[in-house]
Amino acid sequence: VKEVANLSLVSSACDVVSAAYASTKESHPCLRSVCDAAEQGVQSVTEAMASCVQPVLATLEPHVTAVSECAAKGLDQLGEKLPLLPKPVEQILCDTKELLSSRVAEVKEAVSS
């Protein structure tokens, strides 16, 4: 999960959603109250569940480790097949603009000739 969250595209998307959430809370006092209550509820449930789940996680730790290793290998393979995945968003945008510009230039040349 950490590796996926650290991918620039995922991280940027999370940043955008987080900023929109914060902006909405700031702009709408009624929603702020609802969001604050929901956040407190989630935090309380998380704290309560942590103590209950800990023994189960200890038992499942070898299985979780195996799944984690498998997922990491899958993510590495995905990164090889999609080389833009680990790139910073700014680089992806720049590369996309360059690609589109070159394609448009090719089309213009083909039409003019």
TrEMBL record:
Q: Which Pfam families match?
A: Perilipin
Gene Ontology CC annotation, any one = lipid droplet
UniProt-listed GO biological process terms: lipid storage; positive regulation of triglyceride storage
Tell me which UniProt keywords the record has, alphabetically. Lipid droplet
Assign the protein's first listed, main location to one coarse class. Answer: other
**What InterPro entries has UniProt attached to this entry?**
Perilipin (IPR004279)
Q: Which domain of life is it from?
A: Eukaryota
- Give the protein family: Belongs to the perilipin family.
From the Swiss-Prot or TrEMBL record, give the protein name. PLIN3 protein
Report the source organism: Prunella himalayana
The gene name on file is Plin3_0
